[in-house]
Structure to design on (223 residues):
């Protein structure tokens, strides 16, 4: 029995509170509430006693989250390149309704199969997957394959990137992935399949089968 990959969205950031599109590194820091969320997640993970490795995006909010988890687990966090949030380009730092609508439209296009779509000056889904998935596969090879001790890999990252990558890797229905958000410190859990591939065994609080219909209560896909 090996472990699973747990893709964790970071704790609440100052940009989350301000409803500001914050994707450029290093990004906003956590709020006091975000720090508390991270501490509680660390306590919960420690109680489960299943974590073999702790990895973080380069973004400040992800690193701060992972550092609080590290304290509870006693496992040194590894900061890896390529795991940062989907880049929104010219929409960076904007909080107006028009910018949010444009970003949400782009995100939904990805989950409807248009992986070339992008916000003005931002990344396409293809570009995100090209930088993110190789890191995931290297973690699988290092921690979730072969004779290693069983245990989960906890990877602290960002809402839009997690949902895109998880949906693509585990073939989660696009309408579900686009419309089902992750609250701060919620996670998506992927189980490695024999011979390659992944199965999504939990998306936030939802377990499969995942609805193929669109969720009308769409969350802002960002963080």
């Amino acid at each position: 029995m090996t472990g699973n990959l747990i893709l964790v969205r970071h704790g609440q950031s100052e940009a989350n509170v301000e409803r500001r599109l914050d994707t450029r590194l290093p990004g906003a820091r956590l709020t006091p509430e975000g720090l508390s969320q991270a501490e509680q997640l660390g306590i919960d993970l420690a109680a489960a006693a299943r974590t073999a490795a702790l990895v973080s995006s380069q973004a400040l909010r992800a690193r701060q989250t992972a550092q609080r988890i590290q304290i509870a687990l006693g496992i040194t966090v590894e900061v890896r390149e390529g795991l940062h949030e989907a880049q929104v380009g010219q929409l960076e730092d904007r909080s107006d309704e028009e910018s949010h609508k444009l970003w949400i439209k782009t995100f939904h296009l990805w989950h409807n199969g248009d992986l070339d779509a992008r916000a003005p000056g931002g990344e396409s889904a293809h570009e995100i997957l090209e930088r993110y998935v190789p890191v995931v596969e290297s973690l699988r090879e290092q921690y979730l394959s072969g004779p290693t001790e069983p245990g989960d890999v906890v990877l602290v990252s960002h809402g839009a990137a997690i949902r895109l990558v998880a949906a693509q890797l585990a073939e989660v229905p696009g309408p579900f992935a686009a419309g089902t958000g992750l609250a701060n410190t919620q996670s998506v859990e992927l189980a490695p399949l024999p011979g390659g591939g992944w199965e999504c065994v939990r998306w936030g609080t939802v377990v499969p089968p995942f609805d193929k219909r669109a969720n009308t209560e769409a969350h802002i896909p960002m963080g």
Remarks:
- The chain has seven helices and six strands.
- The longest helix spans residues 125-143.
- The mean pLDDT is 94.
- The helical segments are 14-18, 32-48, 60-73, 97-111, 125-143, 159-170, 174-179.
